[in-house]
Amino acid sequence: MRYVDEFRDPEVISRTAEEIRRLADPARHYRIMEVCGGHTHAIYRFGLKDLLPENIELIHGPGCPVCVLPMGRIDDGLAMAEKTEVIFAAFGDMMRVPGTQGSPFDYKARGMDVRIVYSPADALKLAEQNPDRQVMFFAIGFETTAPSTALTLMRAKSLGVPNFSVFCNHVTIIPAIRAILDSPDMRIDAFIGPGHVSTVIGCRPYEWIARDQGRPIVVSGFEPLDLLQSIVMLLRQLQAGEARVENQYKRVVPWDGNRAALRAIAEVFELRPFFEWRGMGFISQSALRLRYPYAEWDAEARFSVPGVRVTDPKAAQCGEVLKGVLKPAQCKLFGAECTPEHPIGALMVSSEGSCAAYHNYEHRKLGDLQLPISD
Description:
The chain is of the alpha/beta class. Helices cover about 40% and strands about 15% of the residues. The chain has helices spanning about 10-25, 35-45, 65-70, 70-80, 105-110, 120-130, 145-160, 175-180, 195-200, 205-215, 225-240, 260-270, 300, 320, 355-370, and strands at about 30-35, 55-65, 85-90, 115, 135-140, 165-170, 190-195, 215-220, 245, 270, 275, 280-285, 290.
């Protein structure tokens, strides 16, 4: 299959790993953050860490939109689901994310009308099919999914669908990276830039990272060779004392982004003054809300939203893992109280969560190695 098999070629992977070992200065320790949760998943799935020299450390960033959503926002959305006239619609990866009183699936078990949709357009269709009900779509994601929500809202407005609304939890990637770089307990040498987000915003928004912060960044695809080639590109920059934005994912990512998608976002959304991120606190200008012309379809305006700030369980260390301060297995609850079957934190739920990825691949692999050998 074109653009898949070629990027999983064992011989080319072996040569690229050898190039990484050649470029890595053995006297230096490299800390490279992959911002995107999809990259974290791919790194564990394909065992890429095993191909790297020990002095290259991959730090898992806050690039999973489900993971960074604070528990209070989940509670706010589920408070709407308790209203008898409301159909709560959300993507499948939201369904097991715990709020203080349970997950959307728990609310469904209690009799609330909770439904999985595969796109915002599916939620709008639900509203058209159920004119006597209110359909609230729990919108989530970085700039990757914001255009589809924007286009659906434009469609709802043009059709005049009165019983459809959006609870907007779209966040933006650049303020999150800035917050990480401003954190006093973090040291990052370079970034593997997010591939999916960059298909929308392009590469230009990252230029300040190289120019002002002196950190190289390479926007990467998601196949094994994409990620290994991106590490080669970063090491070459670091070896030469350079800091530039490079685009490894040229087959998908245009340098200036998707202008039609950006126009749709600008038409429907504006930046919130502040928004809370799980484990990172309030970050200014880091999330989207509906503009005034679309206020009629804003769930936060239509329904009474508690707006209570809720902290994660004290023992959970989701914030430290999200910021890259801790590895997933260093969390006190990891693999014991917190598992994919019984998650305490969102990082163990989402397919892009670093804890789920580590548990499903690395943790089980290590567990297999530790099994006693029988005669």
